[in-house]
Amino acid sequence: MISLQVTIQLAAAVIGLVLGTALWVVRRVPRLTLRGKTVFITGGSTGIGLEMAKEFVRRGAYVCIAARRRDVLESAEGSIRASCGATSCGSDGAGSLAYPRVTSVVMDVASDAAVTAAMDGVQVWLKDVATAVQPPTPTASKPSRSSESALATTPSRLSVDVLVCSAGFAHPTRFLDVPPAIGRQMMDVNYFGCVNAVRAFLPAMYEAKRGRVVLLSSQAAVAAVAGFTLYSPTKAAVRAFACALNMESAARGVQVQLVNPPDVATPGYDEENKVKSPECKEICAMSSPTPWKAADVARAAVDGIQTYQFQVNIGMDGWLLGCLSAGFDPASGVGQLLCEATLAGVLRLVIGVYSKIYYGVVAKHLRKELATAKKEKR
User: Fold this and answer.
1) What's the CATH number of domain 31-133+156-371, 3.30.300.30, 3.40.1550.10, 3.40.50.720, 3.40.50.620?
2) Which of 80, 86, 206, 249 is 20–30 Å from 331 (CA)?
3) CA 26, CA 28: separation in Å to the nearest integer?
4) SS3 (DSSP) at 151
5) Distance between CA 321 and CA 313 in Å, rounded?
């Protein structure tokens, strides 16, 4: 019979092994200070992207927002300046004028050619910010060897500190009710929009050996329910892209992060509700009776970006889904890793219950529709 002392020793050894493994596994990324940093946001003219732009500016970053229409961008710029005040938007905090904290560029992320064409404007913005933040020093008539060496190693293109891919939309109705063109457009904007933007910005980030790439996915990427039949795959693709890209990029000094918003009260959300299937409406209402405020989601997202969480999940539902779906994700916190390891089994059972209920909701609406159709035939 094993003695109490031996049992305690074994338990201590197991706990020590688990904690030691967790400490070894977790990737430690320094906190990101946003003051003076450059942030580029696709889909930054409305919704979550716009609110994230406001939050970045409030924290001292220089922000460039991108969208397809110039008039919408100009309106968004005015909204950002009005929300953060003249001091933080137009001053460097030391009493002297600085380059404007917010600007914009027209960019259609669904088009690789359009993204490439817009990059010249991005480079102009980055050069202007670099000049404002660190004015050039007078040079001697004949450069020294040290200055020649510095010039030789100057990156060919300037790099942003943070790239946020926020552009996207949903058409949440039944699969057969989604026009094929809209299904393809969702993939082009939601997934390939991220791919196109990252492809354009990543080479300079690799050359600079620094930066963050932030991709907006969705809770629907791991909780694909009826009505999100063509939307969920676009966000699941973003999620897989982020995981693989982070493994490729971390050793080069570039960190990738994934933001998974819940339902958020935005103009896009209002448009979604116009086409949302009845079972999708009921399921969404069960999980989130009222949508989140975009400003609250943006604040939580920027907090997660600064502290480096690979998955930035919003709210308790988001946190639970994150624990359940962590899989091959890089561990970015000891506490989070231990929760994922210990709760996954129980959460699978809980999610199984939710799934059963949701299947029942779909069946209920189908019965109602069949009964209505039967009455109309009489």
Assistant:
1) 3.40.50.720
2) 206
3) 6
4) helix
5) 8
Helix/strand/coil for 142: coil
Strand stretches in the chain, DSSP E:
38-42, 62-67, 102-106, 162-165, 212-216, 255-260, 264-265, 292-293, 311-313
pLDDT tens for the chain, residues 1 to 378: 578 777 787 778 877 887 888 778 778 888 999 999 999 999 999 999 999 999 999 999 999 999 999 999 999 999 999 887 744 454 444 333 356 789 999 999 999 999 999 999 999 999 999 988 765 555 444 444 443 344 344 556 899 999 999 999 999 999 999 999 999 999 999 999 999 999 999 999 999 999 999 999 999 999 999 999 999 999 999 999 999 999 999 999 999 999 999 999 999 999 999 999 999 999 999 988 899 999 999 999 999 999 999 999 998 889 888 888 888 888 888 888 888 888 888 999 999 999 999 999 999 999 999 999 888 887
- Spatial distance between the Cα atoms of 253 and 304, rounded to a whole number of angstroms: 18
pTM: 0.87
CA 288/CA 164 separation, integer angstroms: 25
Asked if residue 273 lies in contact with residue 281, where contact means CB atoms within 8 angstroms, the answer is yes
Q: For residue 105, what are the CA distances in angstroms to 115, 119, 186, 214?
A: 10, 9, 22, 19
Q: Any idea how long the chain is?
A: 378
Domain ranges of the chain: 31-133+156-371
Task: Yes or no: say if 125 and 105 are a contact pair by the CB < 8 Å rule.
Answer: yes
Q: Which one-letter DSSP state was computed for residue 290?
A: S
